[in-house]
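Annotated sample (chain length 207).
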Amino acid sequence: MPKVDVLSIDGKKVKELELNENVFGIEPNENVVHSVVVNYLANQRQGTQNTKTRAEVSGGGRKPWRQKGTGRARQGSIRAPQWIKGGIALGPRSRSYTYKVNKKEKRLAIKSILSSKVSSNELVVVDKLQLKEIKTAEMVKIFANLKVEGKALVLLPENNENVQKSARNIEGVKTLTVNTINAYDLLKYSKLVVTEDTVKKLEEVYA
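Output written by the structure step:
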């Protein structure tokens, strides 16, 4: 079973924690992780781009000139695509990019990334993460004690207003709860900061 050190918010080692190898010790499946991340990004796309066809632009109700006898090319409407202010031919239309991925694949992707974090020493486990008040400076101090630099994802077992609001103004830091976890954010942030309770909840959900 993989083991990690449990630290206090002062950065001191409290104990050693054994992790469930079914969640934190599997062989990462890169293909599944890639598939799930691409799905996540596709589902975030709004797909609201839209152009008007010749049927949707205003004007052009009558034929601009008679069919024959003028010496000019025949035209049916001044709102055809070749006209200025005409409709757009084959332009982008509103659509949904959403598609589904198997739940088992999502679970495997998350376990793969968690296992990768452990093997790369990118998992930081804290015994407790509690703040008496909303204070960004206090959160910055905790990160400094834990030697967490750069982009960091704080994963909580449940909503904690003081921690979430204290961390939201720190550049490169994001907080999530276990029930809102996703493969994209796990990959995006180099360090993963969790509490003991978070580890237990992850093992309950993904073991």
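Annotation: The first strand starts at residue 3 and ends at 7.
Annotation: Residues 46-96 form one domain.
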